[in-house]
Known about the structure:
2 copies of one chain form a homodimer.
Chain A: E1 2-9, E2 12-14, H1 17-24, E3 32-35, E4 42-51, E5 56-64, E6 71-73, H2 76-82, E7 88-89, E8 100-103, E9 108-111, E10 115-118, E11 121-125, H3 126-132, E12 139-144, E13 150-160, E14 166-170, H4 171-177, E15 184-187
Parallel strand pairs in A: 1-14, 2-5, 6-10, 7-10, 11-13
Antiparallel strand pairs in A: 1-15, 2-6, 3-4, 4-5, 4-8, 8-9, 11-14, 12-13, 12-15
Amino acid sequence: xxxxxxxxxxxxxxxxxxxxxxxxxxxxxxxxxxxxxxxxxxxxxxxxxxxxxxxxxxxxxxxxxxxxxxxxxxxxxxxxxxxxxxxxxxxxxxxxxxxxxxxxxxxxxxxxxxxxxxxxxxxxxxxxxxxxxxxxxxxxxxxxxxxxxxxxxxxxxxxxxxxxxxxxxxxxxxxxxxxxxxxxxxxxx
Amino acid sequence: xxxxxxxxxxxxxxxxxxxxxxxxxxxxxxxxxxxxxxxxxxxxxxxxxxxxxxxxxxxxxxxxxxxxxxxxxxxxxxxxxxxxxxxxxxxxxxxxxxxxxxxxxxxxxxxxxxxxxxxxxxxxxxxxxxxxxxxxxxxxxxxxxxxxxxxxxxxxxxxxxxxxxxxxxxxxxxxxxxxxxxxxxxxxx
Lengths: 189, 189
């Protein structure tokens, strides 16, 4: 049985170094609040506000370290709430996505692009993928058992030596399936 | 192909006649705002507020006509937002569910029970069910095609002469699957 722990992603933002400085001040660097499941990744102490045409979220957690490009990941429910219409995309693929205003304690940034609804995916360490015969970018079917069971289709496999085994879904997907952080999902195809 | 239109249920409340009078005044009756897909059911002009331990929703739509027992249907995302922990239940099955405070223009009601997360289900007219060999209470697998496809398991069949063909899912389920009102789902098992 190919079981994978579920990691539920709440709304969060990745920021470039340039944007961290624009929002928090020159020379500012993020402070780690807690480590994430993927090695080297962390939730920062710092948060920002984001503002769409219909509303605003305060205290959106920044995930570190800094990235080449800033990217806001929200759920579809979130997107309706603040009035932005992002596509479902893989992380990093932000061309032709909407932008948004980001507000920090020392300044504001108007992102020109970078708002996405993250496509569901599984991080595999290279050895896990090899053991189960799974290729990078393969699309998988994954079943979650619960009082409201769901089979997620088109779950994208991402394979790397620097990954730890974890399925990332957003809060809409977790709530629709009645699962929470650390529950187990099963790759069925 | 067994195709069914999708109906997305936003948070809403059904009220007993006693509670309608307590919230809106003696002798009050609901005014139809628009008809729903199920014959005789309607969204009312009237809304109420509901208040949990962590927050409150204003303008929760009342669905009519009045029912024997009041029942608030919210998504799991909603439940975290206002601080109430309802189970996933079929409509009408409200024993041992949490209550909530309901606030109307003429008074308040403390529901002792009745908050649920609605179990996904399909309404079948008796003729649709017969044509497809589907029994009342049967659990079905239903696929939704979209940029983030999902197979919903344990979709409960509800068969009646007074029903119109429609699959009811909540906003978490719709957003997780990237579908909206009127999109088509396919019964695959």
